[in-house]
Amino acid sequence: xxxxxxxxxxxxxxxxxxxxxxxxxxxxxxxxxxxxxxxxxxxxxxxxxxxxxxxxxxxxxxxxxxxxxxxxxxxxxxxxxxxxxxxxxxxxxxxxxxxxxxxxxxxxxxxxxxxxxxxxxxxxxxxxxxxxxxxxxxxxxxxxxxxxxxxxxxxxxxxxxxxxxxxxxxxxxxxxxxxxxxxxxxxxxxxxxxxxxxxxxxxxxxxxxxxxxxxxxxxxxxxxxxxxxxxxxxxxxxxxxxxxxxxxxxxxxxxxxxxxxxxxxxxxx
Length: 269
Known about the structure:
- This protein has helices at residues 17-28, 46-55, 75-84, 105-112, 128-136, 162-165, 184-189, 203-213, 239-248; strands at 7-13, 36-41, 63-67, 91-96, 99-101, 117-120, 124-125, 180-183, 217-220, 227-229, 267-268.
- Helix 1 runs parallel beside helix 2.
- The chain has a single domain (7-256), classed as Alpha-Beta Complex (Spore Coat Polysaccharide Biosynthesis Protein SpsA, Chain A).
- The strands form 2 sheets. The chain has an 8-stranded mixed sheet with strand order 9-6-8-4-1-2-3-11, sandwiched between helices.
- Helix 1 links the parallel strand 1 and strand 2.
- The chain has 269 residues and is an alpha/beta fold.
- The protein starts with 6 loop residues before the first strand and ends with a strand.
- The chain has 9 helices and 11 strands.
- The longest helix is centred in the N-terminal third of the chain and has 12 residues, at 17-28.
């Protein structure tokens, strides 16, 4: 029997309390809850704090709120603050605050957790109409048959196929920060997220490259650990981040200089 693991769910957010409410509502309905939840807040106003405070009594696990001043898109910095607030020896699951989780999302990630691996999953894309429907009916069921979804194959829940899909596209760098998991000790060993990368885009890819350079092997959460991504306008990746990533590709850098061990003073709300 597989040993029980301790898990932390880290949720990134910024000034979209309606989406965060839907995300936390889906978390509340999980078949297996994480041992702690940390909201990594990149400078939201008190509207977001109000949502978090409202959900605290609804969850049986601790719900922490780590916040930093709004000085532009600094996702790497707030993720490192959240990681510093994570309990030791935990398995960390990363999602964004604009997703809705399949009811077995956490349980699937726990089942896939294994020393020496990081796990990446995919997302199902919703459209603007779904956003409105979910606002009116937060408990709306989403599945592979939901009309109008994109990347429909990512909504197929077939966990019995796990043994033959875990090595899916292992030779390439894959993964999104909205559906990613790794052991805290492995994350600390590469010094967490790279705070040189400010502005939108590429920070997850750079993080995954360093995980791989450290010797970790990727494992795909194909047909499981499903989540649905709320619609919003897409932004182009920062040109500076793109150039930085291009410089790193092919290099064997494992540890970034400005990351987890920067120390910073966390602000818990």
